[in-house]
Write a structure and sequence with these properties.
The complex is a heterodimer of chains A (about 350) and B (about 600).
Chain A (H helix, E strand, L loop, with lengths): L1 H12 L10 H21 L3 E2 L1 H4 L1 E5 L7 H12 L3 E5 L5 E6 L3 H15 L7 E5 L5 H25 L2 H25 L2 E2 L1 H28 L11 H11 L1 H26 L3 H32 L3 H19 L14 H12 L1
Parallel strand pairs in A: 1-6
Antiparallel strand pairs in A: 2-4, 2-5, 3-4
Chain B lengths: L9 H5 L1 H22 L9 H4 L1 E8 L11 H16 L7 E5 L3 E7 L4 H9 L4 E11 L48 E3 L12 H9 L13 H13 L5 H7 L9 E7 L2 E7 L4 E2 L3 E9 L4 E8 L1 H15 L8 E5 L2 E4 L2 E2 L7 E8 L1 H13 L6 E9 L4 H27 L1 H27 L6 H30 L4 H33 L2 H32 L3 H4 L9 H4 L19 H4 L1
Parallel strand pairs in B: 5-13, 6-12
Antiparallel strand pairs in B: 1-3, 1-15, 2-3, 4-7, 4-8, 4-11, 5-14, 6-7, 9-10, 10-14, 11-12
Helix pairs in contact in B: 2-12, 2-15, 11-12, 11-13, 12-13, 12-15, 13-14, 13-15, 14-15
The chains are: A alpha+beta (about 350), B alpha+beta (about 600).
């Protein structure tokens, strides 16, 4: 605690810190690599869409004594796909199996009849359409699009357009990674997955906004000083909010991790697994991108501004002058005012 | 928000925490009491967790239109039924096609099944037909009482309720004095004109034989007209069987007889061929007219529909009661029969008079979504058990409890005394969420499915974020060398800004999804929006005031080592801080460094 509080204090004052902005190209590279992997996985493997999206077959059995759990197991073994089993008011079972077409249905029907010990003729087989038709999925995408436009406008007003653009890129980055993981792992995409994905929208941006808020405050009077360039200030503010970012991320991930490993781990694949996996990946990616991607992107955009270029020039000139006078660049100020040097020295510790 | 606007001056906020806490306490007590009074002590569960009723519908194959049962039409029907049964979109009903010509509708337990079946069952075509004759619902003993109550014909146009047998009709004699819902006057820009007295002779004629009236060019010959008339006379709309059979199988291009409810009683109609059909209605909704403070139904037609509607209303407006009315017929049943006082051009119209909120919204829904491309019959209705079974919910709740415990442990380790404030705030948030969700189950049919349960668990972490933002701000202020009281007040405006901006982004996501999407996504968006709003409420009305109060205690203000606000440990500026991380307990740190 004390060490941690100490670290927090040093981070706050910029005595220690990781050079996020200086090493941004490393992290851009990492992100691009992950994104390419995700896109390739998506293109090669595709997504494993659940029954809600592509339909499947539904089997209705007459009254049977077989338990729902046993029937689920039998159905999944017979078909090799996920099955949803419900008990009907008649005492029979309704078994929905995804990814089954007419040909396979007859076969499955036969096997089911033996496994469930009912007359094959009494099992009713039918194909079902997607309950989560294109319509619902499309509307979710439309909503996503509208949200992105609105949020960019809002962030452009609340902050500035550069931050809005960076936040949007970070958001798309998070969504791509999450979808990519789904393609890679081959988990079934269910409504739960989509809903998990949509939760990431708000959350990924929540994190980014918290970091940006710190940045906006830190760079308020930036042109009135000549000590630091914009990128140095940005780096300081990331480090200053680092404890906050880590804490919010840990606290958000803990319940999700519990869902993923306890809910999913014990029960095997299921709704809990679907939703918590997409959330877990998305939240982790969101925390990462808000620190390593979003803010550095703002810096890249911002340092193209003439005012910031001029500032950088002035800062560097001043430092050069100080150096010429034989002072170490540190000496004119309190040690804590010079983030660059210390940051490099300490960076190893953070990793 | 009851937050201090400028929290700069500690004294300014001194008197306020009590008030804010009182507000939230009252809200919690009221919600909890409401929950117990309405006997809704648990949130309603979605069909995936609680099971419910499964209705199977079969598309009716109509002679000559067999090809109408195709994938496109079936999908359109699924979309329409989904919007109908889901109402606000939070009731978690599922609709999907099965096989070539079936639609399955799964409705979670606790929904008004009767109502849902009606909504699903009346999967009908919607037509606007001109009224040729009207009578009350009983079979046609021609001595029908001329319902003597001469209506105090008020501002709206009461419709002649008993047209059939009152040759001596008093001016717009209304059948029922309440004239509820029936006295809809189709209102154009102008105020509803009281329809003038019905000309008795004409009315009598009409009922005898639906004369080839101008508005309804009679397609049938005399015999057909006579047959229709005979059927009309014999029809008893008070008999459910006859009622159901009355309008069945009527072709849109031919006249028909139909039953419908007028207020508390049944009425029967002879109707002309359909002039406008449901597909011509672009949008309709029940809304309150702010000027008159009454419920109305507004309709917007498609371009084609607008032309047709202008034509029919132009014709109807010149006629007398009851022939200046058109009937809105859904699945052979008259659901409304507004009268027309002038031609309505431009594609917009409104129906007013005697609506309740419920009836206006129902009619709006039916007009909007009633135009199914196919008609369906109920094939089977059966109960189904939960698709996911109890173990998923149980596992979810156990996982939630473990997750919550982990969060609590982490907060305690990191924030020590402060963590208690966060934990109690989480508790307040949980109570509010739970009671509101329970109440909404009854109020708007809100149902909690497994994704929503997961969402609520995730919300633990998201809600805790707001506290962390605030706590870290306070700690930063203490690092600046401030004592706790000013630190708490100075940290607040900045933390408040961050919390509001980021919560606004979350809320925006929820609102957009709620407005744009349907079905499950909408239900989820609702949950997300609700938890975000509650987060703001809890932070403003609970966490902040409690923090203000707590700052007065010795334990926290004195910077007790276990308070989480020890200036020394936080590395506050003025006190000597070259303590070089002495050997003092580096234990809990490692968890964090990772």
């Amino acid at each position: 605690m004390s060490k941690l509080g100490d670290l927090g204090a040093k981070l706050y004052r910029g005595e220690v810190g990781y050079d996020f902005v200086g090493k941004r190209f490393l992290w851009y590279g990492v992100s691009i690599l992950i994104t390419i992997t995700a896109i390739v996985a998506l293109a090669v493997q595709g997504l494993n869409m659940g029954i809600e999206f592509k339909g499947g077959a539904v089997f209705t059995t007459p009254k049977t004594t077989v338990s729902v759990a046993a029937a689920t197991e039998a159905a999944e073994k017979v078909s090799g796909h996920d099955a949803i089993v419900q008990e009907l008011g008649t005492g029979g079972l309704r078994i929905q199996i995804s990814g089954v077409d007419t040909g396979a249905a007859t076969d499955i029907k036969q096997k089911l009849a033996t496994d469930l010990k009912v007359d094959q003729a009494a099992i009713n087989a039918d194909l079902v359409g997607p309950s989560w038709g294109e319509q619902i999925a499309n509307k979710a995408w439309t909503g996503l699009g509208i949200f992105m436009v609105l949020v960019v406008i809002y962030l452009a007003i609340a902050f500035e357009w550069r931050m809005a653009v960076a936040a949007l890129i970070a958001l798309i980055h998070d969504l791509t990674i999450t979808v990519g993981v789904y393609a890679l792992v081959g988990f079934e995409v269910t409504p739960g997955t989509v809903i998990g994905l949509l939760t990431i929208l708000g959350y990924s941006l929540y994190d980014t906004v918290v970091v940006f808020d710190g940045l906006k405050e830190g760079s308020k009077d930036i042109t009135k000083q000549t000590r630091w360039t914009y990128s140095e200030i940005a780096n300081r503010s990331i480090n200053g909010t680092l404890v906050r970012s880590i804490n919010t991320t840990v606290v958000a991930l803990l319940p999700v991790a519990a869902l993923l490993f306890i809910g999913g781990g014990f029960l095997g694949a299921g709704m809990l697994n679907d939703i918590s996996l997409s959330l877990f990946v998305g939240l982790a990616a969101g925390a990462y991108s808000s620190i390593f991607i979003a803010t550095p992107l703002v810096v890249d955009l911002k340092e193209r501004e003439p005012a910031m270029k001029a500032l950088k020039k002035r800062v560097l000139a001043k430092r050069a002058a100080a150096a010429a006078k034989g002072e170490s660049p540190d000496e004119g100020y309190d040690a804590e005012d010079e983030p660059q040097v210390v940051a490099q020295g300490r960076s190893g510790r953070r990793r | 928000m009851a937050a201090p606007k400028k929290g700069r001056r500690p004294t300014g906020a001194q008197g306020r925490p009590g008030r804010a806490l009182a507000i939230i306490l009252i809200a919690m007590v009221a919600l909890t009491a409401g929950m117990f009074l309405s006997k809704q002590t648990t949130p309603r569960l979605g069909i995936d967790l609680a099971g419910g009723t499964s209705i199977t519908l079969k598309a009716k194959s109509e002679p000559g239109k067999e090809s109408a049962i195709n994938e496109t039409n079936m999908n359109t029907a699924v979309g329409i039924i989904d919007r109908r049964v889901n109402g606000l979109g939070v009731s978690e009903a599922e609709v999907q096609t099965q096989g070539r010509d079936h639609i399955i509708v799964n409705i979670p337990k606790g929904t008004n099944e009767q109502q849902a079946r009606e909504q699903v069952g009346t999967t009908a075509q919607l037509y606007f037909r001109p009224v040729i004759a009207f009578a009350d619902g009983s079979p046609a003993a021609p001595e029908g009482t001329p319902s003597p109550s001469p209506s105090a014909s008020g501002s709206t146009a009461p419709k002649a309720g008993d047209g059939k047998t009152s040759p001596s009709a008093t001016p717009s004699s209304s059948a029922t004095s309440q004239g509820r819902a029936l006295s809809e006057a189709l209102k154009a820009p102008a105020a509803p004109t009281p329809s003038p007295s019905a000309s008795e002779s004409k009315k009598a004629d009409d009922t005898k034989a639906p004369s080839p009236s101008a508005s309804a060019p009679a397609t049938g010959d005399e015999a057909a007209a006579a047959a229709l008339q005979a059927k009309f006379a014999a029809l008893d709309c008070n008999d459910p069987a006859q009622r159901a059979a009355a309008g069945q199988g009527a072709k849109p291009e031919e006249p028909m007889i139909a039953c419908g409810q007028r207020g508390d009683a049944w009425g029967k109609w002879v109707l002309g061929p359909a002039q406008v059909n449901g597909q011509d209605v672009k949008e309709a909704k029940g809304q309150i007219d702010p000027q008159r403070g009454q419920w109305i139904v507004t309709m917007q037609f498609t371009d084609k529909g607008a032309d047709k509607f202008a034509k029919i209303t132009g014709e109807l407006a010149t006629k007398q009661m009851p022939q200046n009315q058109f009937a809105i017929v859904l699945d052979g049943k008259v659901i409304s029969d507004p009268s027309v006082s002038q031609a309505l051009t431009g594609g917009n119209a409104e129906i007013s008079g005697g609506f309740t909120q419920q009836s206006a919204q129902d009619l709006g829904n039916m007009l909007s979504y009633g135009a199914l491309p196919l008609s369906f019959s109920e094939d089977s209705v059966t109960t189904v058990t939960a698709a996911l079974g109890g173990e998923q919910l149980k596992a979810g709740l156990i996982a939630g409890a473990i997750g919550l415990a982990l969060v609590v442990i982490y907060l305690l380790m990191y924030y020590r005394g402060l963590a208690f404030i966060a934990i109690i705030s989480l508790l307040v948030s949980a109570i509010l969420t739970y009671t509101i969700m329970s109440l909404l189950g009854k109020g708007i049919g809100f149902a909690l499915n497994l994704p929503a349960v997961c969402g609520a668990i995730v919300a633990i972490g998201i809600t805790a974020d707001s506290f962390i933002v605030y706590f870290e701000r306070i700690r930063d202020e203490i690092r600046e060398g401030r004592t706790l009281r000013p630190a708490v007040e100075r940290a607040w405006p900045r933390a408040r800004r961050t919390i509001l901006v980021s919560d606004f982004v979350s809320f925006l996501a929820a609102a957009v999804l709620f407005i744009v999407t349907v079905g499950k996504v909408q239900g989820f968006a609702f949950t997300l929006g609700l938890t975000t709003l509650l987060d703001v409420v809890v932070v403003f009305l609970f966490t902040k005031p409690v923090m203000t109060l707590v700052a007065r205690t010795n334990f926290f203000a004195g910077g007790h080592p276990w308070s989480g606000l020890d200036p020394k440990r936080l590395g506050a500026k003025p006190p000597l801080r070259r303590s070089r991380r002495t050997g003092s307990a580096p234990a809990p740190v490692d968890a964090k460094e990772a």
